[in-house]
Amino acid sequence: MTENYTALYEEHKKLGASFTDFGGWQMPLKYSSELAEHHAVRKSAGLFDLSHMGEVWVTGPDAAAFLDYALVGKISAMAIGKAKYSLICNEDGGIIDDLITYRRPAGAGNTDKFLVVPNAGNAKVVAAALAERAEGFQVTVQDASAEISLIAVQGPKAQEILLRLVPAAQHELVTGLKYYAAVEVPLMFGGTSQELLLARTGYTGEDGFEIFVSNGDAAALWQALVTIAEDGELTPAGLASRDSLRLEAGMPLYGNELSLEGDPFAAGLGPIVALSKEGDFVGKTALAAKKEAGAGSTTGRKLVGLKGLGRRAGRGHYPVLKDGNVVGEVTSGQPSPSLGYPVAMAYVDVEFTEPGTALDIDLRGKAEPFEVVALPFYKRQK
User: Fold this and answer.
1) 3-state secondary structure of 298
2) CATH of domain 250-373
3) What's the pTM value of the predicted model, to 2 decimals?
4) What's the pLDDT tens digit per position in 141-183?
5) Are the beta carbons of 314 and 331 closer than 8 angstroms?
6) Any idea where the domains of the chain sit in the sequence?
7) Of 4, 136, 211, 310, which alpha carbon lies 20 to 30 A from 153's?
8) Of 114, 119, 120, nearest to 140 (Cα)?
9) Of the candidates 3, 123, 125, which has an alpha carbon nearest to the alpha carbon of residue 54?
10) For 233, phi and psi rounded to 5 degrees?
11) Residues of the chain by 3-state class (helix, strand, coil), percent to 5
12) Fold observed for domain 4-53+147-247
């Protein structure tokens, strides 16, 4: 597989990062201790490089109607400035990717404008699928992934830190920004002020922001954020802590909880499938049939949270047992740094998915006790 490097690779090297391949990208796994990075995000703030994610612009007079057809959600119902979590599925209802779509102010000629952000390993596949589905629509699909970097500041002090780069007269743009919304904000760094797209989104379960910046300016923005933070206030964080944070927050990871073989109803994402929206969309017939058949409710398996009653953690692909019989499989699992006990997400036969149900995870031949709990495992204090 070809190795890709983000525009921040040299910054990570300077900080002594350990690297790992993720979706074909060389990404920082951790800088020192993944536990310290995890706790920093929960208690103060963490700084993440998310530049491996994709960015696809969808513009044109039919952009809203096109995305209603291409994705499972009702994208046309979004207000300008808002963001929406959705899925792109194939004709069989299999999940190609989960993604976030941002509706931006109309462009020249009053044409609709959206930014679609797919996952790293799926960026090219999603861009190609969107381009293929665009036939017959007055729409332009532009894959800008190679030109855009994405930097996230996540944690209870994220807003306080970010405001130090924003002129006082524009502070309300940040403080008034709602969750799952985005706005252009002037940020002062590298000796200049730049209007950048700032989104109040994240993958950690904490308050936080994601900043879209050109590759050429990414290092200057990263350095500015590090510089304006006080000692111990903002900790660079890698993929290891990002994974433990998103697991505690009950957020799915493509390739673990979501896949082409799975379906939205089993994954607990039925509410985002807009079967009632007007017109057809890719996968609608198959998804309607799955829902009618009771997928994730009366038949098959359903994604649940599992809380460990002992000290040992389950890991991906470990069998889930009921009275010694296999009734499911772990998709993600590890000890929870915030909660102090093991947590896991798993697909389990629907009859064993009620919270409080006692189950075991087969830890290499030894049954370890767990119980079904509601997701997420962790909720931040607001």
Assistant:
1) coil
2) 2.40.30.110
3) 0.96
4) 999 999 999 999 999 999 999 999 999 999 999 999 999 999 9
5) no
6) 4-53+147-247, 250-373
7) 4
8) 114
9) 123
10) -85, -35
11) 25, 35, 40
12) Gyrase A; domain 2 (3.30.1360)
